[in-house]
Amino acid sequence: MRRVLTYGTFDLLHYGHIRLLRRAAALGDYLVVALSTDEFNASKGKQSFYSYGVRKEMLEAIRYVDLVIPEESWEQKISDIQTYHIDTVVMGADWADSPRFDYLKDYCNLVFLDRTDGISTTDVKKELKE
């Protein structure tokens, strides 16, 4: 069984999120989503519209997602890979030119997926304010 792991906040769930999860799931047999906790988001200067519990509930309802775990820090990735026997970590393509996650290649495959054009949580929030 090939296991895939991705990370994110997944606030204001939209079709870009669904397409990303579908593509990530297609890379293996079992998809684990590490969902940023409210506390971790706060440490990054972010605040989600929906609480962690609600975002987790929504992700668990998506057929592409097999397991949702909390993302509580940047440093937990190696532990997640080892604990959940991950073969591939999926990150957004906006990280592809950064060496920030290169160390993960020592533990598993690292794949960068493009985001869906024309949609982002930031854009949705901006439009809702207008």
From TrEMBL:
Enzyme kind, highest EC tier: transferase
Domain Cytidyltransferase-like, first and last residues per copy: 5-126
Signal peptide: none
Alphabetically ordered keywords of this record: Nucleotidyltransferase, Transferase
Transmembrane segments: none
SUPFAM superfamilies per UniProt: Nucleotidylyl transferase
GO MF term list: glycerol-3-phosphate cytidylyltransferase activity
Cited Pfam families: CTP_transf_like (PF01467)
EC number: 2.7.7.39
Record's protein name: Glycerol-3-phosphate cytidylyltransferase
InterPro entries cross-referenced by the UniProt entry: Archaeal_FAD_synthase (IPR050385), Cyt_trans-like (IPR004821), G3P_cytidylTrfase (IPR006409), Rossmann-like_a/b/a_fold (IPR014729)
PANTHER family: FAD SYNTHASE
